[in-house]
What does this fold into?
Amino acid sequence: MSDQSSAPRATGTYRVKRGLAEMLKGGVIMDVVTPEQAKIAEDSGATAVMALERVPADIRKDGGVARMSDPEMIEGIKAAVTIPVMAKVRIGHFVEAQILQALGVDYIDESEVLTPADETHHIDKFGFAVPFVCGATNLGEALRRISEGACMIRSKGEAGTGNVVEAVRHLRNIIGDMRKITQADSAELFQWAKQLQAPLPLVQEIAETGWLPVPMFCAGGIATPADAALAMQLGAEAVFVGSGIFKSDEPARRARAIVEATTHFRDADILAKVSRGLGAPMTGIGMDEINQRYAERGW
Amino acid sequence: MEPVVGVLALQGAFAAHERALAQVGVATRQVRLPEHLHGLAALVMPGGESTTMSNLLTSSGLFDELKGRLIDGLPVFGTCAGMILLASEVLDGRPDQRSFGVIDIAVRRNGYGRQIDSFETDLAVVGEAEPFHAVFIRAPKMERCGDGVEVLAEHDGVPVLARQGSVTVASFHPELTDDARLHGMFVRHHGIIQ
It folds into this structure.
């Protein structure tokens, strides 16, 4: 080998931040509230865990203001597993994000599940070395988050409901509009940018590539292996499961089954096999029974 | 018949590897089940989470089947998590984590640190005139290379690209840039394309 010194390292770059999202593709990211749950998630094949104090179903039940988790709790989960650890901050709460970056979490979720701290502005995510994921209900929202520096988009769905209907709506919104944009001529792209309230260069990029410039995962309401495979067949590149695992009867078995279903999402024989005998899923709630739609938070 | 290179598609950056292989003119197939190994000329094992892949290799029945093919000399290129799965010794892994043990190296999981320490840099690669831009994501570190292992690139004195017989491994992600030279090097070295 040559004896010349190695080139310097560049950390916190866009490519490095986006790179981790690439590594999480085809996997399941699980919400956990204790180190024990984090271990169960890792044992079951989760690609990452989301450390939080209460799963969305409980935030919904308890009410009140939901904030960033206690650093002690996040550190306990970091110590328990070897896979990446994510944590949530309130929309616009850049100081919570500074704290999570100082703690060395691997990904920050600027999340509508927590109570928003700013009703106008999201965090300037380019200012951070740690990557961010943000939720979106439609393509315009996704592109606005990307223009603020998000390195991963997740369709929002409706967290804490165990009901996949909103996740499906949001995935179809985002992917359907991307399909239409690939058919648009160059003049129509200006109108698309205006209508979506999104930067023109990002719209032009979609016209060329047919996809977002960052990976898109699905969240909010996935409770069964079939739900996960549905999201993947609709075009999601990985799934987040929140309340769906640890609010079910047999979390470890269900977690493992959802991991299998996400990998083999087009293989109905395997889906049938892994869906058997999992015990009761979380009960779930209908959209007409909830009084707060988290998906409406964020702008 | 046109040679086909498999890409292990249980989880991780397999789509990016398929793009890179297409760029060098090679047909690819996603591998999720033992029957997908049939007739492959080579295999790429992508980055992702090695613990997740280890579980899925066992449950899919791929582990034993693939181990046999690797021992028989199927050319394989493992990047990041893929490298961990090929290594003879894994440090800081989970006790139940399974590896194929077909290259004589010791690898420390997350040896370069957490995501905040992930980095990109230029590497001098043996046989390549121009430097290769490499992306390291929560990368595993090669802490020992056996005598039979040829080091093809190193960074700060640590091997990051190495080969032993049919097995090539990288700590970094050659699939995350538009530069497909290392994929080209792999398939040409094993005579899959000229």
In short: The radius of gyration of chain A is 19 Å. Chain A has a mean pLDDT of 95. Residues 249 and 280 of chain A are 5 Å apart (CA to CA). The beta strands of chain A are 10-11, 28-32, 48-51, 85-90, 107-111, 132-136, 152-155, 216-218, 239-241.
